[in-house]
Write a structure and sequence with these properties.
Helix content is 48%, strand content 7%.
């Protein structure tokens, strides 16, 4: 084996550490320095990142990025204008109301010819008038008063 070529680097204790000058070693060292620098930046961006180990900080960074994406979505939704109201005219409502009155037969059922004298034969299949909450106000608004 050939002796390794190295460059001396002083450590804090006064001893010299030999650093390899081989291209792959230099590239690996530079890569480690870049990773270390990026971790320092990431730790400064994540809340509480400086107080965590690397794995915990990465997990927290993932959660934090997801949280920020959710916040962006919520803010974008809040900034979007509301959808336009559904366009309708009184003729549409009149047409629909007349259609309903012609398709629903509200006449009582004929008396049952069965020998059973239950009260079900005297009941209507549905109440003679069914309305919904706010119907009167809506009909008067469009000019239909019943």
């Amino acid at each position: 084996m050939s002796p390794r070529k190295g460059v001396g680097k002083r450590s804090g204790g006064g001893r010299t550490i030999k650093l390899s000058t081989e291209p792959q070693s230099i590239a690996a060292r530079q890569r480690r320095h870049r990773i270390s620098d990026r971790f320092k930046v990431l730790k400064s961006l994540v809340p509480g990142g400086n107080k965590m180990d690397t794995v915990s900080m990465l997990e927290e960074a993932i959660h934090y990025v997801k949280f920020l994406k959710t916040q962006i979505s919520l803010h974008q939704a809040a900034l979007m204008p509301p959808p336009p109201p559904f366009p309708f005219s009184s003729s549409d409502i009149t047409m629909n109301a007349s259609h309903l009155s012609t398709t629903i037969d509200a006449s009582p059922l004929p008396p049952s010819s069965s020998s059973s004298s239950s009260s079900s034969s005297s009941l209507l299949p549905y109440p003679p008038f069914i309305s919904f909450k706010g119907e009167a106000e809506m009909l008067s608004y469009v000019g239909l008063n019943y």
